[in-house]
Design goal:
Rossmann fold; single chain; 2 strands
């Protein structure tokens, strides 16, 4: 897995200041889907509890996939830092509760508001 887009071998011939420093949500989504399909979904299907820990943009891509969000919905998606979000799935791996459930809803709400105001 490429940890930073600037380390991708495709950009090795470019000077460091010309290499990409970020990746789009679409890029993250494309990178995340194989991991969902190959690792997470089989664990869930087998009845295992799976903990996903990631940074904001990866979580945005993940939630976009899980909840089937469109681009307009993603623009309003604020994922509070450090607030555990639980998803439970049905037998087809669709969320039982779209958007999941924060373990501490009040703290998540406060943190999400802080993100909106940045």
């Amino acid at each position: 897995m490429i940890c930073h887009p600037g380390n991708d071998a495709r950009y090795a011939s470019l000077p460091a200041d010309a290499r990409p420093r970020t990746e789009s949500l679409a890029d993250v989504h494309a990178r995340l889907l194989p991991y969902w399909t190959d690792q997470i979904a089989p664990d869930l299907t087998a009845g295992r509890t799976t903990l996903v820990i990631a940074h904001g943009n990866s979580l945005r891509a993940f939630i976009t996939h899980l909840d089937g969000l469109g681009s307009a919905d993603v623009e309003n998606l604020n994922i509070p830092t450090g607030q555990p979000l639980r998803y439970d799935f049905d037998h087809t791996l669709r969320p039982r509760e779209p958007g999941g459930r924060y373990l501490d809803p009040a703290a998540a709400c406060t943190e999400a508001a802080a993100l909106r105001n940045r």
